[in-house]
Amino acid sequence: MSDFISVIMPAYKSQDTIERSVMSVLSQDYKDLELIVVVDGLDDSTYEVCSQINDKRLKIFKKENGGVVGAYRYGVKQAKGKYICFCDSDDTYKEGYLTKAHDLITQNNCDFVAFSYDLVNQDGSVVESIRNYSESGLYDKKRIDTEIIPHLVFNSFIRQDMYVILALRWNKIYTKDLIDSFIDSLDDNCRQIEDNFFIINAVLNSNSFYICNEFKCYNYFVMDTSISRGYSGNQILDAYFYTIECIAKRIQTCPLIDSHQVDFLAYDNARIVFHRCARNSDYKTAKNLLKTIAGNERCRNVKLSELKMLKNYIYHIGLKLHLYYILYIIFKH
Question: 182, 200, 221 — which closes off a domain?
Answer without folding.
Answer: 221
